[in-house]
Specification:
Blueprint (H helix, E strand, L loop, with lengths): L5 H9 L14 H9 L6 E2 L6 E2 L6 E6 H6 L5 H5 L5 E4 L4 E4 L2 E2 L12 E5 L2 E3 L1 H5 L8 E8 L3 H4 L6 E7 L7 E9 L5 E12 L3 E12 L4 E2 L4 E2 L3 E12 L8 E13 L4 E3 L10 E2 L6 E17 L3 E19 L9 E20 L3 E25 L7 H10 L7 H12 L6 E27 L2 E24 L13 H19 L2 E12 L2 E9 L2 E12 L2 E5 L4 E5 L2 E14 L4 E20 L7 E21 L4 E17 L20 E10 L4 E10 L17 E11 L3 E8 L7 E7 L2 E6 L4 E9 L1
Parallel strand pairs: 7-10, 14-19
Antiparallel strand pairs: 1-2, 3-9, 4-5, 5-6, 7-8, 9-10, 11-12, 11-41, 12-13, 13-16, 14-15, 16-17, 17-20, 18-40, 20-21, 21-22, 22-23, 23-24, 24-25, 25-26, 25-27, 27-28, 28-31, 29-30, 31-32, 32-33, 33-34, 34-35, 35-36, 36-37, 37-38, 38-41, 39-40
Helix pairs in contact: 7-8, 8-9
Length: 773
């Protein structure tokens, strides 16, 4: 099957059984039998702050229910990402893209994130995306919002958001347990959850936990052990309080403790014939990524009559991370480092929803404060004197001036002679301490008004104000002994003395202390649109809204100077189609979008010194494409589904200030596949036997921002399946991921003559045993 044919096939699967003449199309006997039941399962979207069905939501949303998660044995958020149109995981499941836009940045810079994961209303920092509370045990629903969510979610949601909602307590006794084991990485998982009433109809609880251990896929031939083992412990506790006589008041208090230990990004050598099945490194230093999260949430809801409802969500998130890496992955010390962070996030949201019939919506206020007071990073690595420090041309320029006064040819010759006295790499150690304090306040609203039956006007806004207090201290030390000028004859000794001074000066300039920087930003983010139900269960909509990421400040290490950059904005134009057919057995939805991105924050290299860089609002780009998704209950026991997404990214203009700038015009975003698609089916027999099979595809992408001569991140197509038996209380399943053992990687580079790659997961076969009451 050719790559060009695969998206076409996925589109055919996504629109499976789509009638050509609406309700007049003939249905086969199976579809007719299904329609006779008149059953439909409405999916309710909650992440847009006002509960509405998926079919009444014009924004592009993919919803995974708890049933979807259990049917496919999905264990973490990246399993969902890889099964969603126009989403893709990146860097060995340490990040993701939405419509080709990375959750962190598209050009290696920017103070805030571009997409955020929310857990029970609390925003998770990007550090938690790489290693944090993203497992799916005892999750009620996950909503993936594609497109800007700046109007309702605020900062760090220009590209979209992922909303995770954990299971709530119930006044009925409920419990479940699961044990899973897989073969390829020796991973096992044990999870349990139980809940029920403490005081009937007044107070209920739910406690859930999961333990995970695994050996990983990579072995360290230097130490003889596993290089990338992983482990995690997750505990959640929730209380539901509905006091009698409070006229509908509902209070939910929850606590999460999450600990994840892993290897971060599991690089392995990819230049051996058997690299896929025999993954090894020869690292003499540990590589790991550890995180601890404590998350508290207080969610209160109070109906105020038949029209209004008052809601309050308070969250406090304490995330601590520590990491270390062996950058050379060999038994030498040419590149290594470590880092620690300590982040505390408090947020408070108060909103009033209203529903008069024709007019529905909400208005609210938001406050958050993010503090990261004592983060530290240390790194040791080698710099090429010419490539990274621009040594030869810099010395030649100095020799042409006083006191030497040499002609250009002689100056260049002597500069090259001096360069030959220095090693191939000069090793340095950089220690950086930084402090971040971000305070955000916002007023927002969103509403729809039905002006005539079936025709609605859509409107929304957000006024956002942000204050940043940032400081940065950096110390650079040269580890490599420099040539002693006294050991060389004149005039080479004078030149070497000058060169040593230039190298030391660059290190001294890179050792900089930035005083506390106070900046503030304001943004008004409007939204407008129209929605028209052209026929029962068939609606078209058009929306335009503004996206936003705040500005920031930084330090140019080479010049020891501070700089400030402004916010960046997008205008987003979207068309949506929502349809259901055959008595709502078949759902066929689609969105088309165009994003106009201006004042884009990009990293600008100002000279041939690796330290001479800063962030500027130098970019302009566009993103356009579509998503098509379909779900068909052929019978009560047989369901098929499919989706396809296309996203085209491109830098249009690049207007930077500086003399040594890489122009990004015409280039695409990094890790941005154009095509993504998925399809599958689920079948369950009355005897209890069930089968689920699915396939997902991610197209090829560029891994570099400058060199885009070839799409060096290959596309991949993964086939997965789950088969088993269950009744109301017990279940046993056999599952397999990447059944055909397709070989792929997320990133690959040449590291001192060895190819290192972030390899994808090989074929994994596992067993799952479940119980519930």
């Amino acid at each position: 099957m050719t790559n060009s044919f695969r998206p076409v096939l996925a589109l055919m699967l996504a629109s499976a059984a789509m009638p050509l003449h609406a309700e007049e199309a003939a249905m086969d006997a199976a579809v007719a039998d299904a329609a006779d039941t008149g059953e439909s399962n409405e999916i309710v979207v909650t992440g847009l702050k006002f509960d509405r069905t998926l079919q009444d939501t014009p924004e592009s949303v993919k919803v995974f229910t708890s049933d979807d998660i259990e049917r496919q044995s999905l264990t973490n958020i990246f399993d969902l990402i890889d099964r969603t149109a126009n989403l893709a995981s990146t860097f060995n499941e340490s990040g993701f893209t939405i419509r080709g836009i990375s959750n962190t940045n598209v050009s290696g810079t920017g103070f805030g994130d571009l997409a955020t994961v929310y857990l029970d209303g609390s925003p998770l920092p990007s550090d938690a995306t790489a290693s944090g509370p993203l497992d799916l045990w005892d999750i009620d629903q996950v909503e993936i919002l594609r497109g800007p969510q700046s109007t309702l979610q605020g900062r760090n949601a220009l590209a979209g958001a992922i909303i995770i909602k954990t299971a709530d307590p119930s006044f009925d006794w409920q419990g479940k347990a699961r044990a899973m084991i897989t073969d390829a990485n020796g991973e096992y998982r044990f999870g349990a959850a139980i809940g029920g009433p403490i005081i009937d109809d007044v107070l209920a609880f739910r406690v859930a936990g999961e333990l995970t251990r695994g050996d990983g896929f990579v072995k360290n031939s230097f130490t003889g052990g596993h290089y990338d083992p992983n482990s995690s412990d997750v505990v959640r506790a929730k209380l539901l309080f509905t006091p009698s006589g409070a006229d509908g008041l509902q209070i939910k208090l929850s606590y999460l403790h999450d600990r994840h230990d892993g290897n971060g990004r599991g690089y392995a050598y990819s230049d051996t014939p058997d690299y896929w099945s025999n993954r090894i490194v020869e690292a003499n230093r540990p590589t790991f990524s550890r995180s601890k999260t404590d998350l508290f949430t207080l969610d209160a809801t109070l109906p105020l009559g038949d029209v209004f409802t008052l809601s309050s969500i308070s969250t406090y998130n304490h995330l601590r991370t520590s990491s270390a890496y062996d950058g050379d992955l060999q038994a030498v010390d040419t590149a290594y480092g470590d880092a620690v962070t300590n982040q505390k996030i408090f947020s408070q949201e108060l909103r009033l929803t209203f529903d008069t019939g024709p007019l529905q919506g909400l208005i609210g206020g938001y406050y958050s404060r993010t503090k990261n007071p004592d983060s530290n990073t240390n790194s040791t690595f080698g710099l090429d004197p010419d490539r990274d420090l621009g040594l030869t041309p810099t010395v030649a320029a100095v020799l042409q001036g006083p006191p030497f006064g040499l002609d250009p040819a002689t100056a260049l010759f002597l500069a090259q002679q001096a360069r030959a006295q220095y090693p191939g790499l000069i090793y340095i150690t950089s220690s950086q301490d930084y402090s971040i304090d971000i305070e955000t306040m916002a007023l927002f609203g969103d509403a729809s008004f039905e002006i005539t039956p079936g025709l609605k006007l859509l409107a929304g806004f957000r006024y956002d104000r942000e204050k940043q207090r940032v400081s940065n201290d950096n110390i650079v030390v040269i580890n490599t002994p420099l040539p002693n000028p006294a050991l060389y004859p004149s005039p080479l000794n004078m030149i070497l003395s000058t060169v040593n001074g230039l190298i030391q000066q660059q290190a001294d300039d890179a050792s900089s202390s930035s005083p506390l920087s106070n900046t503030s930003y304001e943004a008004f983010l409007p939204k407008g649109g129209i929605s028209w139900e052209i026929a029962p269960d068939k609606t078209i909509s058009a929306i335009v809204q503004r996206g936003y990421r705040s500005g920031g400040s930084g330090v140019n290490p080479a010049r020891a100077s501070t700089y400030v950059y402004d916010p960046e904005y997008t205008w987003n134009y979207e068309l949506s189609l929502r349809t259901q057919w055959f008595d709502r057995r078949l759902t066929f939805n689609a969105n088309a979008f165009f994003i106009d991105w201006t004042d884009q924050q990009v990293s600008v290299q100002l000279s041939n010194s690796v330290y001479d860089y800063e962030t500027q609002n130098a970019g302009k780009s566009r993103v356009y494409g579509f998503e098509v998704e379909s779900d068909f209950d052929v019978t009560d026991s047989f369901n098929i589904y499919g989706s396809v997404g296309y996203a085209r990214t491109e830098f249009l203009d690049f207007d930077a200030t500086g003399g040594f700038v890489d122009d990004l015009s015409g280039l695409e975003f990094v890790s941005s596949p154009r095509w993504t698609w998925a399809a599958g089916f689920s079948w369950r027999d009355r005897s209890g036997i069930s089968v689920n099979a699915n396939v997902n595809h991610r197209g090829a992408a560029y891994q570099g921002l400058i060199d885009q001569s070839a799409r060096d991140v290959p596309g991949r197509t993964l086939v997965n399946a789950k088969v088993g038996w269950s009744n109301d209380n017990f279940g046993a399943y056999l599952f397999a991921n990447n059944i055909f053992d397709e070989k792929f990687f997320d990133y690959q580079y040449d590291n001192d003559g060895r190819l290192n790659a972030l390899l994808g997961e090989p074929r994994m076969i596992g067993l799952s045993f479940e119980a519930r009451f």
